[in-house]
């Protein structure tokens, strides 16, 4: 077809990007099966113990959450992949998640951490992937919005800044990240063709009702709903790309609503920019990691119940 969109039954990378862009532009999720026909159900291979590989960024590795077992990647042995592995009948567990990882680190080393895709093989039974936040620029966005808040604490200086070109730069960045996530999932499927693949979304960082908590979380009052919506847009994109690739998507936002970084220390599962519990700023603490683990386990259990 014209523009190289389809060759026989094979969709080219350009065609996939166009289709994903169109879907994201409409912000519509078309119902689709997310169960790959050739994937092993969770629990396959319990006789030998399943082979599980965890790929991801700092929300997966859990920096500063005790106990840290990899200083290069700021990886905890109580992160959600470790908790999932402890619950499942895991024979082989490879956690290659690494703080600061982008989709590029799926193919290239990050310090002493090799390319994350190298953890996969034809005998891999389960893969969890949580990536995209650093491609969108979580850290830069937080720093920029916190800096701008001092200019107009009751307004929306961050939203105005990212919309100064006449369009929402963050919405565009999320859309541009979609083909990168698509490429990662296709590479996972190529390297682990029999695995159950789970794409994990990001937890609720800010109050879901759009309220703020300046100055404990130093964003301007009207920027809280803007940043909340930006994260929701990222999670919607991840859900869309998961459906496109017929892999499972795990919602960690819903289960963490009401436990964002604005809540009191006893109630929050995401630490603010000045953490009170061992965790990186704007990252899940040990409770948050445990809730994300349970969300993954619940998704795997629902699959087992259907099969």
Keywords:
307 residues; alpha/beta; Rossmann fold; two-stranded antiparallel ribbon; 10 helices
Mean pLDDT: 89
User: How many helix segments?
Assistant: 10
Overall SS class: alpha/beta
Order of helices and strands: EEHEHEEHEEHHHHEHEHH
CATH level 4 superfamily: SGNH hydrolase
Q: Report the uncertain regions.
A: 1-11, 26-47
Q: What top-tier CATH class fits best?
A: Alpha Beta
Strand order, sheet with most strands: 6-3-7-8-9
Count structural domains: 1
CATH topology: Rossmann fold
CATH architecture title: 3-Layer(aba) Sandwich
Radius of gyration: 19 Å
Terminal residue distance:
39 Å
Describe the structure concisely.
This protein is α/β, with parallel strands linked by helices. It has helices at residues 13-26, 58-61, 80-87, 133-136, 138-149, 157-162, 169-191, 223-244, 253-256, 286-306, and strands at residues 6-7, 10-11, 50-56, 68-70, 75-76, 90-95, 126-130, 196-200, 248-250. The strands form three sheets. The protein has a five-stranded parallel sheet with strand order 6-3-7-8-9, sandwiched between helices. A two-stranded antiparallel sheet has the order 1-2. A two-stranded antiparallel ribbon has the order 4-5.
Could you explain how this protein is built, in words?
It is built from ten helices and nine strands. It has a single domain, classed as Rossmann fold, CATH 3.40.50.1110. The protein has a five-stranded parallel β-sheet, sandwiched between helices. A two-stranded antiparallel ribbon has the order 1-2. The radius of gyration is 19 Å and the shape is globular. By secondary structure, the protein is of the alpha/beta class.
């Amino acid at each position: 077809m014209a523009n190289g969109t389809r060759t026989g039954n094979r969709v080219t990378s350009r065609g996939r990007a166009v289709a994903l862009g169109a879907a994201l532009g409409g912000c519509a999720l078309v119902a689709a099966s997310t169960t790959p026909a050739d994937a092993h159900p969770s629990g396959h291979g319990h006789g030998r113990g399943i082979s599980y590989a965890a790929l991801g960024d700092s929300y997966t590795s859990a920096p500063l959450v005790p106990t840290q077992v990899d200083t290069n990647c700021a990886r905890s042995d109580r992160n959600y992949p470790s908790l999932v592995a402890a619950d499942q009948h895991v024979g082989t567990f490879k956690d290659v998640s690494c703080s600061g990882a982008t989709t590029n680190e799926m193919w290239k080393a990050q310090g002493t951490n090799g390319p994350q895709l190298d953890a996969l093989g034809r005998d891999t039974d389960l893969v969890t992937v949580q990536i995209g936040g650093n491609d969108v620029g979580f850290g830069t966005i937080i720093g920029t919005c916190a800096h701008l808040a001092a200019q107009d604490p009751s307004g929306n200086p961050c939203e105005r800044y990212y919309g100064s070109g006449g369009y929402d730069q963050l919405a565009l960045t999320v859309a541009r990240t979609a083909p990168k996530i698509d490429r990662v999932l296709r590479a996972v499927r190529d390297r682990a063709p029999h695995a159950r693949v789970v794409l994990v979304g990001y937890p609720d960082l800010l109050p879901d009702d759009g309220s703020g908590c300046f100055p404990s979380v130093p964003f301007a009052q009207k920027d809280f709903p803007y940043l909340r919506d930006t994260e929701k847009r990222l999670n919607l994109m991840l859900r869309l790309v998961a459906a496109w690739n017929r892999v499972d998507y795990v919602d960690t936002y819903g289960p963490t609503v009401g436990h964002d970084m604005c809540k009191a220390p006893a109630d929050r599962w995401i630490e603010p920019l000045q953490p009170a519990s061992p965790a990186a700023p704007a990252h899940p603490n040990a409770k948050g990691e445990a809730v994300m683990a349970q969300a993954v386990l619940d998704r795997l259990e629902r699959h087992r119940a259907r099969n």
